[in-house]
Design brief:
This protein is of the alpha/beta class and 327 residues long. It has 3 domains: 12-166 and 296-317, Penicillin Amidohydrolase, domain 1; 168-225, no CATH class; 227-291, no CATH class. Helix content is 40%, strand content 12%. It has helices spanning 51-78, 82-85, 90-98, 105-112, 116-136, 143-148, 157-160, 170-184, 186-192, 219-225, 243-261, 265-268, and strands at residues 12-16, 23-25, 34-38, 44-48, 273-275, 286-288, 302-308, 311-317. The protein has a 6-stranded mixed β-sheet with strand order 2-1-3-4-7-8, with helices on one face. Strands 5-6 form a two-stranded antiparallel ribbon. Helix 1 (51-78) crosses helix 5 and helix 3 crosses helix 10 (219-225). The longest helix has 28 residues, at 51-78. It starts with 11 loop residues before the first strand and ends in a 10-residue tail after the last strand.
């Protein structure tokens, strides 16, 4: 049963739970009435009469919940982290710009779904609707913006398909194996390293200069893939009252990242699991898949329920927009 809350064209209304009073806000960009209900678990249930408004509302609600996370993603995607954190992040920005998508954007977006371009555009419009509101009313900005003394920027469809959070780790292994083959040969490497499944060819392409593999050829890649770390000096003076605690947190982050990067893949393991119904509260078995993502806060994923004509499903928003990918 739906609560009495509405999100209509030029009007946004959110409510939490089935008994909460509706919260109506005027929003430019919608074409018809839309209803958003946030349940007791914080999941948004979006009811719309058309596709554009459905994804516009999703973008708006997600930005409202995750604005600082979205701003970091936007800056990582566009290579503009150094604008906030200074010259130490220049290589990150260079790497991000080198890996930027430069193909046919319309074709790329429609590869994900026949209406991909329209869906992503609506999603971005919804994000920007809240960004504009927050910039006009700084009280809507999360604490992190005030600590860093920054404001959020506007999104474009290119940000949505950024590769900055892709599963791209194989390049590191390729360089390591290339160096090993150059130094000791294929047979010796296969004696020392187990490759599975099958027996891969480790012959280095003749066009590659083996000597250059020993240079830091993936420096910019490593830079733009590394998690962002904030230093005490990044926080505005009025908010930076305990540098010792900030430094301890930073050291902990660096230690955890370096430990992960230097751990053999075989010992990291997999994060899929199953629990017997005899051990669950419901009595039903619980199964989790293997998304290969670290546990972070806020999460990479954003759960949402859609309801629009033929679209009625519970999905996860992956990255900033992967509503057609179940995880």
């Amino acid at each position: 049963m739906k609560a009495n809350c509405f999100l209509s064209y030029f009007l946004l209304t959110l409510c939490i739970g089935a008994i909460a009073q509706p919260n109506r806000l005027r929003i430019k960009g919608l074409s018809d009435q839309v209803e958003v209900i946030r349940d007791i678990y914080g999941v948004n249930h979006i009811y719309a009469s058309n596709e554009h408004d459905l994804f516009f509302a999703q973008g708006y609600c997600a930005a409202k919940d995750r604005l600082f996370q979205f701003e970091l993603w936007r800056r990582q995607a566009t290579g503009t982290i150094a604008e906030v954190l200074g010259t130490r992040e220049v290589k990150r920005d260079q790497g991000a710009r080198l890996f930027k998508f430069r193909g046919d954007l319309k074709k790329e977006l429609n590869h994900y779904h026949p209406h991909g371009e329209q869906i992503v555009t609506a999603f971005v419009e919804g994000i920007n609707a809240f960004v504009n509101q927050a910039n006009k009313n700084p009280k809507l900005l999360p604490l992190e913006f005030r600590l860093l003394g920054i404001r959020p920027g506007l999104w474009t469809p290119e940000v949505v398909i950024s590769r900055h959070q892709g599963l791209l780790g194989n390049i590191t292994d390729e360089v390591i194996y290339g160096r090993a083959v150059s130094a000791m040969g294929i047979d010796k490497l296969k004696d020392l390293q187990k490759f599975e499944p099958g027996d891969p060819s480790l012959v280095i392409d003749p066009s590659i200069n083996k000597e250059l593999l020993f240079d830091n050829v993936i420096e910019l890649y490593d830079a733009f893939r590394k998690p962002i770390t904030f230093l005490p000096k990044d926080v505005v003076t009025s908010a930076n009252k305990n540098k010792k605690k900030v430094k301890e947190a930073i050291n902990g982050d660096d230690y955890a990242y370096n430990l992960l990067m230097n751990t053999e893949h075989e010992t990291i393991g997999s994060n899929n699991w199953i629990v017997s119904g005899s051990r669950s509260e419901s009595g039903l078995p619980m199964l989790a898949n293997d998304p290969h993502r670290t546990i972070v806060a806020p999460s990479l994923r954003y759960m949402v329920h859609w309801s629009q004509s033929l679209v009625e499903t519970m999905r996860f928003q992956r990255k900033t927009f992967s509503c057609y990918t179940n995880v």
